[in-house]
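This part of the workshop introduces the protein records we will be handling. A record pairs a protein's sequence with a compact description of its fold. As an example, a complete record with its sequence and its structure tokens follows.

_____
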Amino acid sequence: MSAERYDLLIIGGGPAGLAAAAEALSHGLVVGLVDERPTLGGQIYKQPGPGFRVTEPARLGRDYVRGRRLIDAVEGTAVRVMARTSAVAIDGTSVVLVEEGRAARTVAAGAVLLATGAHDRPVVFPGWTLPGVLTAGGAQALVKTQRVSPGRRLVLAGSGPLALAFPAQLHHYGANVVLALEAGPAPGPRDVLRLALAAPGNIGLLRDAIEYRAALLRARIPLRYRRILVRAEGEARVEAVVHAAVDADWRVQPGTEERVAADTLCVGYGFFPSVELPLLAGCAMRYDENLGGPLVGVDEWMRTSVAGVFASGDGIGVAGSFVAADEGRVAALGVALDLEAVSPELAEERARPFRARLRRKEALRRALGSMHAIGAGIYELADSATVVCRCEEVARGELDRAIDGSADLNVVKSLTRAGMGLCQGRSCQRQVAALVAARHGLPLSEVAPATARFPVRPVPLGAIADASIPDGGFFTR
């Protein structure tokens, strides 16, 4: 057994992982925190890189300030933070870690918390591989950590709270946003009533939404509802964006196309949970397209179906940073309870306010649900020539031929190499699954994800190669 052992090993340094680490530490647990980035905070609380010094935190916005509070509760404490480190395999409560520049090592723990977060939902459409097409997360990384504007004329297309917040934030940073598109409907009287009923405990979030909308109005940035991007046009980079009206299922209505000149297109149609590690661990899954698709199933203490393995944050449902943080706290209490570091009575008492906040956030999510439910049309934009797997350059036409013969993603992957590239299917697998579902008349929820394989994150072969196998020095150190 490895000499390196923790009571709780947390995979992921975003809101869920940070909150869990602080909570677990307060109950006397020995905690290790792993994150593949050089800085903590995750996507929502992304920090400037090493070497940057922030002298006026407020100027970086509320997300930065909120993130710093969570980070400061962990950094400089007894929590062992392992940055630039990837978790590449898991077997029960043993995890294989690869630190940048080092060989793999196995770490044991009393419990493991998978707080692996989510990544931007890729949307496949003609022109999506052109330079100048960015996910909202990619654009945020440029703006938040490098203070670089993604372009000179920006169009933002998406749905959900991010489609309202992000154009306002980009404008605040000085970017020239010429148009914002929302695939969902404009709020109606019933939506306003539902939001009012869900307001208790969510006033701050609703106030933020009002401020973002007011900022767009002041800047005269058009926000057009029930519109979806159709394609990006250009030669060496994006030169124009074509968008169209959609029905309730986000399917394009013929004859409604419009074209707008732009050099940058930011795409923000929500997020996909990063569930490769839970799948590799054998955790039972559930499905909810509006929460991201395949999700880890958990109980009231965030335990998964695998003994000693817990999950929280976007991996069990993409519901925002506040939800993720409280789920992380509940998970830490669940671990402390199972390791007998707290009594059942103390755990219940401590968890009560966290669960109350989670119920209030769930009420708000349900109130927003009718406006931002994901439509099937999001998967119907690609034509036969559109590259779906950009890593391996596999077009939809080639995928269609393979899908004619099989509804198994693993078979389609083997026949076409779609999903075998650097991103390991994170950019294309759901689109391929949607093509399979449409061709074989299946609900998307019944198309099983491709088998997760070690290593679940891209690492150098030399970091994981077995030195006992002769290889002529090509792969081992």
